[in-house]
Amino acid sequence: MTKWELARYIIDAKKCVDNILFIAENVNGLRNLSLRDIIEDRKRKFYINVKVVYDKSLSLSKRKSLKESDSIYRETCMERDKNYAHKDDSYVQPDYNSLIEIADVLKERLVHCFDLCKESLPEVVTLDFIDYDRDLYRFLNKIDPEKEEKLMKAQYPGYGIKPSEDDLKNGFSRKVFNDTEDIKRIHNPNEYAVILKAGLTVREGIQEMQDGVIRINVLSGKNMWAEPDMDAINRMKAMIEENPDSPFLY
């Protein structure tokens, strides 16, 4: 597995933390959902993805040594092995006081994984935590497919415009590379292209851009990254809050 293929899994784990941060921030508006099940799903995905990074980065002997000497590594593996990979009779789930506490624990474990496995990951990758969940944002704001289309067209004037016949003749007609795991069955990367999405919201744009850049790097052997300018994003947030008629969404 290449460094950029592996980066996909650590960023997928990071997005699970983003999701829990979003739920914590909006728990009142989401209280009619099965939040316990949703949070468990995010935690399950988190631990499975983190374990992939560990297994692909560290030798068996190193992992055995860390289980003896590193409490954060040991607890991370225990959650995955005894709770999410299968149910161990001796496993007792930790009793957390809040969703923020859960998010903080996951952050600590992910940053620790990032540090232990940095030699197997691209040097340019960063962990940029944001409180966002793509699907729950749409639920909370009552955004159905028709409303989303209107919002996207308002924010992005070129949204939905199809390539011209001349564009198609000049090589714009390619298959879409949607998932890094698909690289295993692609023989000619030149037949594929990655669609970079700006996202419905500013925060979604960060997640979409980083996912898209990872796919580009896996497909084309590049070494790009999209690190958000958090100061600019905070200014954008303030602007949107001051201008409720703005087509942009935070």
State the share of residues found in helices, binned by percent. 55-70%
What characteristic shape results from the CA principal axes? globular
Strand content: under 5%
**What is the topology, as strand order, of the major beta sheet?**
1-2
| Count, helices | 10
Instruction: Give the rounded overall mean pLDDT.
Output: 93
Rg calculated over all Cα atoms: 20 Å
- N- to C-terminal separation? 35 Å
Contiguous low-pLDDT stretches (5 residues minimum) are: none
Summary tags:
two-stranded parallel sheet; 250 residues; 59% helix; 2 strands; globular; 10 helices; 2% strand; mainly alpha
Characterization of the model:
With 250 residues, this protein is mainly alpha-helical. Helix content is 59%, strand content 2%. The chain contains ten helices and two strands. The chain has helices spanning 3-25, 35-57, 60-69, 71-85, 99-116, 134-140, 145-155, 165-172, 202-220, 230-242; strands at residues 175-176, 192-193. It has a two-stranded parallel sheet with strand order 1-2. It is globular and about 60 Å long. It starts with a helix and ends in an 8-residue tail after the last helix.
Which secondary structure elements does this structure contain, and how are they paired or packed?
Blueprint: H1 3-25, H2 35-57, H3 60-69, H4 71-85, H5 99-116, H6 134-140, H7 145-155, H8 165-172, E1 175-176, E2 192-193, H9 202-220, H10 230-242
Parallel strand pairs: 1-2
Helix pairs in contact: 1-2, 1-5, 1-9, 2-4, 2-5, 3-4
